[in-house]
Amino acid sequence: MDVTIQLGADGEPPVVVARGVLDVHTAPDFREAVLPLLAVAGAGSVLDTSALHVADPAGDATLQWLVRHSQEFGGAGSPTTS
Length: 82
Hints:
By secondary structure, this protein is α+β, with helices and mostly antiparallel strands. It has helices at about 25-40, 55-70; strands spanning about 1-5, 15-20, 45-55. A three-stranded mixed β-sheet has the order 1-2-3, with helices on one face.
């Protein structure tokens, strides 16, 4: 699992990028890694999950929780594909 932040440039929003497999084994660590990055990225940030493979219901539930959390706290809220 790889989670990084790409700070916005030239008016673009910051992007938190997740790559790897999200499943019952990686979901807790993924959630703990992404929350602080979304906080640092701030309002208007984007969670890019285009390179993330959601392998099971636990992974899906974690991703959906993060989307809701991001929406509640000012992020773009929806996973993007790029």
